[in-house]
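A.,

Following up on our hallway conversation. Structure tokens first:
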């Protein structure tokens, strides 16, 4: 009796991922195409991470941050595409609440972490070009490690907040999600709870997570371009001055 009730509760607590494709020839082609792109991205990012890890000459801040970006991309595609492939091939479109929460956590966390890591990479290039002599101090391995770790931590905090709120809501109806993975925006549409406060908090967090990294990236590359432009003009002036000096020299006698 209790086992039947538990099985019914478990089945009723699952979500249904409607997905993107059916089994028509055209959709099967698109599914195969996406799966091929997934394997290419998986292999490419894996090779990038392994090569940077094995080659000691690449253990510099720029390549360390690049390896972290490849690792995030690798984990991000593994969060969504394998579930989509399993649902398409097996025909089982259900996903448990725990599985849905895990997907949401990794998806939100990795996206947020990538935003902060891209800002760190922009700062790294800014320091390398604008302050080349101070680069070993301003971008030491310790500072680079702190930047990478901070990106992971900030992204994970955002993921924890979103998952904790999403799993605390009550859901009713068919529990159908019109997507191929658990998306927090889709969950809010089928929730029976009042999600207005959470939506405002999520909007505020998204603004911060996007605005701050984008501002750092724009500021870094703007300063970088201005420095490159200034150095280019300075070099041209030096070349012109050198030509004027050469032209003012007396000609050698024949």
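Then the amino acids I'd put at each of the 254 positions:
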């Amino acid at each position: 009796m209790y086992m039947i009730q538990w099985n019914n509760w478990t089945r009723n607590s699952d979500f249904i991922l409607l997905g993107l494709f059916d089994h028509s020839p055209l959709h099967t082609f698109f599914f195969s195409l996406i799966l091929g792109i997934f394997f290419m991205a998986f292999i490419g990012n894996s090779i990038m991470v392994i090569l940077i890890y094995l080659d000691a000459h690449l253990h510099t801040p720029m390549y360390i941050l690049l390896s972290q970006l490849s690792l995030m991309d690798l984990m991000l595609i593994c969060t969504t595409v394998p579930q989509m492939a399993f649902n398409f091939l097996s025909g089982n479109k259900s996903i448990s609440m725990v599985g849905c929460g895990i997907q949401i956590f990794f998806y939100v966390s990795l996206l947020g972490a990538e935003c902060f890591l891209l800002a760190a990479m922009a700062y790294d290039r800014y320091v390398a070009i604008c302050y080349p002599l101070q680069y070993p101090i301003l971008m030491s391995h310790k500072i680079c490690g702190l930047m990478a770790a901070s990106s992971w931590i900030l992204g994970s905090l955002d993921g924890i907040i979103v998952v904790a709120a999403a799993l605390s809501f009550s859901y009713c109806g068919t529990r159908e999600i019109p997507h191929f993975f658990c998306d927090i925006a889709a969950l809010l549409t089928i929730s029976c709870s009042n999600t207005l406060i959470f939506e405002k908090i999520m909007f505020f967090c998204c603004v911060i997570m996007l605005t701050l990294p984008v501002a750092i990236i724009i500021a870094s590359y703007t300063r970088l371009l201005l420095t490159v432009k200034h150095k280019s003009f300075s070099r041209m002036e030096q070349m012109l001055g050198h030509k004027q000096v050469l032209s003012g020299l007396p000609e050698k006698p024949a």
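The first helix runs from residue 2 to 13. Curious whether your intuition agrees with the design.

B.
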